[in-house]
Each structure stands twice: as C-alpha cells, then as structure tokens.
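Data deposition worksheet. Section B asks for the primary sequence of the deposited chain exactly as it was used as input, without tags or linkers unless they were present during the calculation. Section C holds the resulting structure in token form. Section D is free text for depositor observations; keep each observation to a single sentence. Incomplete worksheets are returned to the depositor.
Section A, Depositor: J.P.
Section B:
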Amino acid sequence: MFYTFTDWVFNKPSASRNTKLYFRESPMGLLDGKKVLITGARKGIGRGIAITLANEGADVGINDILDDEFTEKLLEIISNRGVNSTFHKGDVSSLEGINSVFDSFMEKHNKIDILVNNAIFPDQQRPFFETDEIYWDRMMNLSLKGYFFASQRAAKEMLSGGTGGRIICLSSVHSYVAMPNWTAYGTAKMALRRMVKGIAADLAGKNITANCIAPGAISNKLPDIEDDSMDGPPHNPDDLKKFVPSGKGGLPSDIANAVLYLSSNLGQYVNGETLLVDGGMIASQKIHD
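Section C:
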C-alpha cells in the first residue's frame, strides 16, 4: 500500500518501516501548487526530498551538475506523482551558476515557494594538513557561499511573488561535534546554522522562514535503477548501535519528512533554527564517522 505524508499522519495506517510513502492517494497534499527547487537532488537525500515534496503536490525542479540515467529516472518518478518535474543543470558553487539555475527554474515555474539547499560534493573529509586552499575554497564555495547566494536569490523571487516562502539548508551533525578529518566540512556546516538565524532576522516580517536540518548517519545507497522506492538499503544496525540511541541509521525519507515539515504550514512558526535528525547521536555525545 502507498500513502502520502498526510495520510500517514492523520489516518495512521498500520505498516512496517518499509511501507512506501510516495504515491498520492489523497486528492490534497500539504504542498499542493507549491514550486520547489532542490539543489544536488539527483541522488541520496536530495532525491528523497524531491519525491516526498512531489508526493505532497509540489511541482519540483531538481538541480545537479550531472544529467544521466539517475536524473531521468527521478524526473520520471516525480512526473508519475501527477506534478510537474524539471531539471536545471548547473554548478551552484558560483553566483553565475546559481543565477543560471534560477533563471532556468523561473522560466519554467514562474515563481519559487521553497528552496532546499542540499548540494555537496563526495569528498567531504580530509586530514587537517592535507587540506589545501583548493579544497578549502571548493568546500566553502559550494557548502556555504553557494547556499547563501541561492538563499538570497530565492528570497528576492519570493518577495517579488508576494506570497513568502521557505528556505531550508542541509547542515550536519558535524556542525555540533568535532572529529578528526572533518574540520573544513564541519566549519561550513556550522556556519549554515548561524546563516539561517541571520536570514530569519534579515527577512523579519516578510513571511519567509529560514531553517537548517542536521542529518546524522544517513544511508545514501540507491535502490535499483528500475525501483521507484525512495530509500535504498539501510546501514547495518550493528554498526551504529553504540553511536545512535535509536539503534539504527537513518534513510533519505527521514530527512525528507523533516524538510516537508519545515516546508509546509506544519512548520510555519519555526524560523532561524536547526532541526537535528540523527536518531539521538548528538544527544548521546557520540558521533560516527
């Protein structure tokens, strides 16, 4: 059986963790008619966010630097939800690239209601003495500067549209606890937590909220290319039990549901905050590499 988030919350179906939550059986969703842009959405957490928000009625634009079979499959999944799906190729680590992506998105959707800053590159950890200027700049350009200027452009468009909106940035548990080899990444992710507070203050009274989500250990493994499921194989629980009080790792759907909360009216009074979605990892003062 398939359910929307709305069905899941209010009708409370009895199902296992593997129940698929992305097919729209309800005629109304939490985000009907909303226009969403998600950066770095081709795989992993971004993919899960795209499917979840589409399932709740949003038209979704996905951004990535690659356009391949995974991109095409995601666009197909979103379109099958009965909403519009578009792809906007581009590097969102520079202002030029950001504006190109937004111009493309606005041409197709005419407005933006929700921005999810999710883009990251795979090489997230590096030893302190091996972190050179090139790596540092790459990290900050994509994970901090890019998030800032994408948020700025989104806010301008939201104000122009006159309906307000939501800005959501993906931070990390590494913004809370330091561990070897994660200094550059953790610095960028900590800065995002301060950034959304500033944006919330800067946009006071504009009906635009800005928040972060800090994921813990999330399995980004994809299902088979022909599988429409949101989540791939989970982490081995035995590898995480001593780090995570919940006794298991997270899945893209766990982060996507948090994004949905902050994107919808359910989270309209949350502003300038960071929501930890980590199974209690930070609460236990432990962190897993």
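Section D:
The helical segments are 5-10, 44-55, 69-79, 95-109, 133-161, 183-202, 252-263.
Residues 207 and 281 are 33 Å apart (CA to CA).
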